[in-house]
Amino acid sequence: PNLLAPPSGCRFHPRCPLADEECMREDPPFRQIGTTGHMAACHKAEIVQQGVDVWAQ
């Protein structure tokens, strides 16, 4: 993302394939995902984690 003129909402929404209106509108909070202690600032973190879990099997 452009550090001098960042986009509104999530800074990565312009290049994220999962981005939607929420991502464009709201900056995601940094939060724990699942029970592993991993932290993420992404509205779609649970969806991404599900894919990681499937590939890890």
The largest sheet has its strands arranged as: 1-2
Overall geometry: elongated
Give the biggest beta sheet.
Answer: 2 strands, antiparallel
Instruction: Give the percentage of residues in beta strands.
Output: 5-15%
How many beta-strand elements?
2
Helix content: 25-40%
Q: Give the number of domains.
A: 1
Q: Count of DSSP helices?
A: 2
Sequence of secondary-structure elements: HEEH
By secondary-structure content and strand pairing, the structural class works out as: alpha+beta
Distance between the termini: 33 Å
Low-confidence stretches: none
Mean pLDDT: 87
Rg of Cα set: 13 Å
Explain what the structure shows.
With 57 residues, the chain is an alpha+beta fold. It has one domain. The chain has 2 helices and 2 strands, in the order αββα. Strands 1-2 form a two-stranded antiparallel ribbon. The longest helix is centred in the last third of the chain and has 12 residues, at 45-56.
How would you concisely characterize the structure shown here?
With 57 residues, this protein is an alpha+beta fold.
